[in-house]
């Protein structure tokens, strides 16, 4: 038995009497042997368990289907992990989650990839040559290849999503190529037909020569630096509507009621037009003017020119200066007369290429802000031109084929030439030869591109199927007002897309898709498209159990009985539906699920989905198509909450692109890249925590440095949990189950801080503000636990007796912190959270009881209640909370002067000192410093062996004067707030060498004599030596 230590006493003698942390929780994550089974448990098993045990009505996050055309990229990781964090949080809150992952399996990207693979393996001279038109291939062959490509991509993507820890039943997914899905889609189409919302029209649509199909506006992206060759072209006016020869300027002027000078009476008269698409000039059918604009007949005067020709031109008065500048640097306009646009209507001109007579027409879209004020009008290549001509009975003309090449209708010189390449230049060359090309100019402007092939598109008149959106706009815009948007600004973006869209081109000229179920009369080419016909076609497809039957069965199979034996013959339509119509009808999946809930006497939830979450590009895509089809069929919006995330950028803020070599593969983050030195394996939790750390409502940055910093945070979380597990033991469970509250003021403060953390983090999870959850967790970990609480409690945990109330109080709090910590991490770093949970449960099994209904619950924190009832009875008053803030502020200041003394070589450890704390009086009467705990605990808090609080200024002055060499550092007066300190809130600190001796066991300077145990340690060691 030792009352005091001998001169040879060393700390090692007492090492085995210390209660140092012990745990088998590893410092680094270790891939368990049962990794595959654990991965399944963390995804499928939890999902299936919660569907059986948690409360209804279910929380529905409806998955927007990604394209099944390749590997998942970092943008997919951002999207799916955000969704998973939402779902895991809802499960942890005790609510059943309905989440069915989906894939968009149709469309051009998949078909193009399939054909590219076919081309690589096709011998020369076979059916598919390098430049062959893929639309001419046997559609059955194309569909087989595309299906195979899509299913292969689905299998690979599904495996990756499980690796990312996405919670779902991976045996129950949806694919837009599934028969039941396609039948529901066809039924939506049939309903819209019955409501008069579907029609067919030959008019200009956006056409992609690179894809050889029509595109909707939602499938366009605009390139701001597109270069076009613009041209100023003159068209000879012919005079009155009965004149067939070119009119002189004087003749035409008299027809318009104005006179010209005699010297120009015999001059020819030309209308000047400007176009940025010279290739459309063969399709010209009119020149448009604005009836209310002023137009001038003018002669371009060039004093430097010796040309004898003196033509007269017609252009908008407001455009003369710009027009003449294009004609030459020294050209000025000599205005001869002015007329209004209405006067020009009906005037004929000679087509600049064919010479045929055509008329000047009126159009409100003509302005005086660009060009010449006279607009070359090609109704086969522009919607505004088409609508202006349609009202006058002028048909659309488009001598361009699906490959974007001129047809024979454009003339032998142009036939076969690409309108976007050599065709346009050939048109200009012909105009120049005929003297009709006055000037050209290369301009840079915004131009639409196919967002898949990244190639420019054209407008081309073709027969297409459209959805009329005009009657859907008002109810859709009204419905949007009731949607909760994250961020709020995204609502306005969706509204703009909906408000500016009058119709939707839903037909595509490709084989891989859902057929537009229409029959065409072979004699008239009129479509047979009504509700009963579509219902019959759907019934046939359902009976044959394959949409492929549209391409494999004879047309007679699909002809409704009412149209059989009538002498009419039909052909099957070859168009397929826009893939946005495919994915946009995915809400039909939820109707049966919600109907089943209603049958189970649960409250009917409206809208169908609680959350739609996708990238910001989906305002023009899936968000919009889902909204419009749902409004058309049900009259309701399909989502309650619309969440939008940005795009992923590299460390310099550039958009990620394989061509730039700046991409980061999600699986390389998890498993490491080929070069593990440059791309180390960080694990799934690092990838997920990166997602949580971002402000996803904006574009987000990812780089190797970013990931390395996040990985360090994951390690910090792990080490924090390991410290807590190492300081708990089997007896902790009994303490917690007894309902005992913490006795230490510090511990009660820690528990109050924990309650505040839960409140804040819960609010941020509810708001889907995961970056703020991340901030709360990292701040609590670093600023409160590591830098404050853990540093303070080590002494009591390691050196006090195992049954010390002081130590047990802290163990109770550590249990609660660990339990909460695990829950708050659970939706984000799920692997780490569940690893902590399993070790915590093994250590304190009675704190995680299993009832008969919970025996099947997977070993996951998600299957336990969210920590809402925590530390009842330990809430801090405002005054007490302020006192603790004062203590922490004093501690910060004490750390500064301790560091100063350390730098001056006065001390090695803070335990060597006595801290003197002075609170000056406030005014005429003293205002004693009010602190929320004892001086003994304050010593622990300030990490010193002795503490003395001084209130008398004279005593303080005496202590400073007597300090001598033992007084190591003095702070200035420090403002630390008013909590307990009167109106000024000032303290002054000083540190001096402790007057007591170092205890060889706890190292605090609390021993009366050298090498002797302090009173506390002496008692602990005595009891330890006499233990049974």
Automatic annotation (TrEMBL):
- Keywords of this entry: Aminoacyl-tRNA synthetase, ATP-binding, Ligase, Nucleotide-binding, Protein biosynthesis
GO annotation (BP), single: isoleucyl-tRNA aminoacylation
Kindly list the GO molecular function terms attached to this UniProt entry.
aminoacyl-tRNA deacylase activity; ATP binding; isoleucine-tRNA ligase activity; tRNA binding
Main localization of the protein described in the UniProt heading = cytoplasm
Q: Which organism is it from?
A: Dimargaris cristalligena
Stored SUPFAM superfamilies: Anticodon-binding domain of a subclass of class I aminoacyl-tRNA synthetases, Nucleotidylyl transferase, ValRS/IleRS/LeuRS editing domain
Instruction: Please give the CDD domains that the UniProt record associates with this protein.
Output: Anticodon_Ia_Ile_BEm
- Region annotated Disordered sits at 16-39, 657-678
Ligase in keyword set: yes
Looking up InterPro entries in the UniProt record yields: aa-tRNA-synth_I_CS, aa-tRNA-synth_Ia, Anticodon_Ile_BEm, Ile-tRNA-ligase, Ile-tRNA-ligase_type1, Ile-tRNA_ligase, M/V/L/I-tRNA-synth_anticd-bd, Rossmann-like_a/b/a_fold
Q: What is the protein name stated in its UniProt record?
A: Isoleucine--tRNA ligase, mitochondrial
């Amino acid at each position: 038995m030792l009352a005091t230590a001998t001169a040879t006493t060393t700390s090692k003698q007492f090492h085995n009497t210390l209660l140092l942390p012990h745990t088998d929780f590893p410092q680094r994550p270790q891939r368990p042997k049962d990794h595959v089974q654990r991965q399944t448990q963390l995804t499928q098993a939890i999902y299936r368990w919660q569907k059986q045990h948690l409360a209804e009505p279910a929380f529905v996050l409806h998955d927007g289907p990604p394209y099944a055309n390749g590997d998942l990229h970092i943008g997919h990781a951002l999207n799916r992990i955000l969704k998973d964090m939402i779902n895991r949080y809802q499960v942890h809150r005790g609510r059943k989650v309905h989440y069915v992952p989906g894939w968009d399996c149709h469309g051009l990207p998949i078909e193009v990839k399939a054909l590219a693979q076919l081309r690589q393996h096709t011998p020369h001279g076979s059916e598919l040559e390098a430049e062959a038109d893929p639309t001419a291939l046997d559609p059955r062959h194309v569909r087989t290849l595309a299906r195979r490509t899509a299913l292969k991509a689905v299998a690979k993507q599904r495996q990756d999503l499980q690796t990312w820890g996405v919670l779902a039943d991976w045996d129950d997914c949806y694919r837009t190529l599934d028969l039941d899905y396609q039948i529901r889609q066809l039924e939506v189409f049939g309903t819209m037909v019955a409501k008069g919302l579907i029609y067919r029209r030959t008019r200009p649509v956006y056409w992609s020569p690179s894809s050889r199909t029509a595109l909707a506006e939602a499938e366009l992206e605009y390139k701001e630096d597109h270069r076009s060759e613009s041209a100023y072209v003159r068209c000879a006016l012919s005079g009155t509507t009965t004149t067939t020869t070119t009119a002189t300027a004087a003749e035409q002027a008299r027809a318009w009621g104005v006179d010209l000078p005699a010297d120009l009476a015999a001059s020819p008269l030309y209308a000047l037009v400007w176009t940025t698409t010279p290739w459309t000039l063969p399709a010209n059918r009119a020149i448009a003017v604005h009836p209310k604009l002023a137009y001038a007949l003018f002669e371009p005067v060039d004093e430097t020119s010796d040309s004898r020709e003196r033509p007269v031109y017609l252009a908008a008065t407001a455009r003369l200066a710009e027009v003449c500048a294009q004609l030459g640097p020294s050209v000025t306009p000599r205005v001869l007369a002015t007329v209004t646009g209405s006067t020009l209507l009906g005037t004929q001109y000679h087509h600049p290429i064919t010479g045929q007579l055509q008329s000047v027409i009126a159009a409100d879209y003509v302005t005086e802000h660009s060009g010449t004020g006279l607009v070359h009008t090609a109704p086969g290549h522009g919607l505004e031109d088409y609508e202006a001509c349609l009202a006058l009975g002028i048909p659309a003309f488009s001598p361009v084929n699906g490959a974007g090449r001129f047809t024979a209708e454009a003339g032998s010189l142009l036939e076969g030439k690409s309108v976007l390449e050599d065709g346009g230049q050939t048109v200009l060359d012909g105009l120049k030869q005929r003297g009709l090309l006055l000037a050209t100019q290369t301009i840079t402007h915004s131009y639409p591109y196919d967002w898949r092939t990244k190639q420019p598109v054209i407008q081309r008149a073709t027969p297409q199927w459209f959805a009329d959106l005009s009657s859907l706009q008002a109810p859709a815009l009204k419905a949007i007002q009731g949607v909760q948007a994250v961020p709020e600004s995204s609502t306005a973006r969706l509204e703009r897309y909906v408000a500016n869209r009058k119709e939707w081109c839903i037909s595509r000229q490709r084989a891989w898709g859902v057929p537009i179920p229409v029959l065409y009369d072979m004699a008239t080419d009129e479509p047979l498209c009504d509700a009963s016909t579509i219902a019959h076609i759907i019934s046939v497809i359902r009976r044959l159990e394959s949409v492929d039957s549209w391409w494999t069965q004879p047309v007679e199979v699909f002809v409704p009985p009412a149209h059989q034996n009538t002498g009419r013959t039909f052909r099957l339509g070859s168009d397929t539906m826009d893939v946005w119509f495919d994915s946009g009808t995915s809400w039909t999946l939820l109707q049966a699920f919600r109907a089943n809930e209603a049958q189970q006497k649960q409250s009917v939830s409206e809208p169908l989905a609680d959350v739609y979450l996708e990238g910001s590009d989906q305002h023009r895509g899936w968000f919009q198509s889902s909204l419009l089809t749902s409004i058309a069929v049900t009259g309701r919006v399909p989502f309650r909450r619309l969440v939008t995330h940005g795009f992923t950028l590299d460390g310099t803020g550039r958009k990620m692109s394989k061509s730039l070599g700046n991409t980061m593969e999600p699986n390389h983050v998890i498993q490491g890249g080929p070069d593990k030195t440059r791309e180390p394996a960080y694990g799934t939790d690092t990838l997920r925590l990166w997602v949580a750390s971002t402000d996803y409502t904006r574009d987000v940055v990812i780089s190797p440095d970013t990931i390395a910093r996040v990985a360090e945070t994951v390690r910090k979380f792990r080490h924090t949990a390991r410290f807590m597990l190492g300081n708990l033991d089997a007896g902790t469970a009994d303490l917690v189950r007894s309902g005992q509250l913490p006795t230490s003021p510090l511990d009660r403060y820690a528990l109050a801080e924990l309650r505040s953390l839960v409140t804040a983090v819960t609010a941020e999870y509810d708001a889907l503000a995961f970056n703020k959850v991340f901030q709360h967790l990292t701040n609590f970990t670093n600023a409160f636990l590591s830098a404050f609480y853990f540093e303070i409690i080590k002494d009591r945990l390691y050196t006090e007796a195992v049954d010390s109330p002081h130590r047990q109080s802290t163990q109770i709090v550590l249990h609660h912190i660990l339990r909460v910590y695990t829950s708050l991490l659970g939706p984000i770093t799920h692997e780490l959270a569940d690893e902590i949970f399993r070790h915590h449960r093994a250590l304190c099994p009675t704190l995680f009881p299993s009832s008969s209904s919970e025996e099947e619950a997977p070993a996951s924190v998600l299957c336990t209640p969210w920590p809402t009832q925590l530390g009842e009875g330990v809430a801090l008053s405002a005054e007490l909370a302020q006192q603790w803030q004062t203590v922490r502020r004093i501690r910060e200041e004490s750390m500064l002067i301790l560091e100063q003394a350390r730098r001056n070589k006065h001390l090695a450890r803070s335990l060597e000192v006595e801290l003197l704390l002075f609170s000056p009086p406030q005014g005429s009467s003293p205002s004693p410093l009010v602190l929320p705990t004892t001086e003994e605990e304050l010593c622990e808090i300030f990490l010193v062996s002795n503490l003395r609080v001084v209130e008398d200024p004279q005593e303080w002055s005496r202590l400073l004067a007597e300090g001598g060499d033992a007084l190591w550092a003095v702070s200035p007066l420090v403002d630390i707030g008013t909590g307990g300190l009167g109106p000024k809130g000032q303290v002054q600190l000083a540190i001096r060498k402790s007057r007591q001796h170092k205890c060889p066991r706890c190292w605090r300077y609390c021993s009366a004599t050298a090498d002797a145990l302090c009173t506390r340690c002496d008692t602990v060691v005595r009891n330890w030596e006499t233990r049974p």
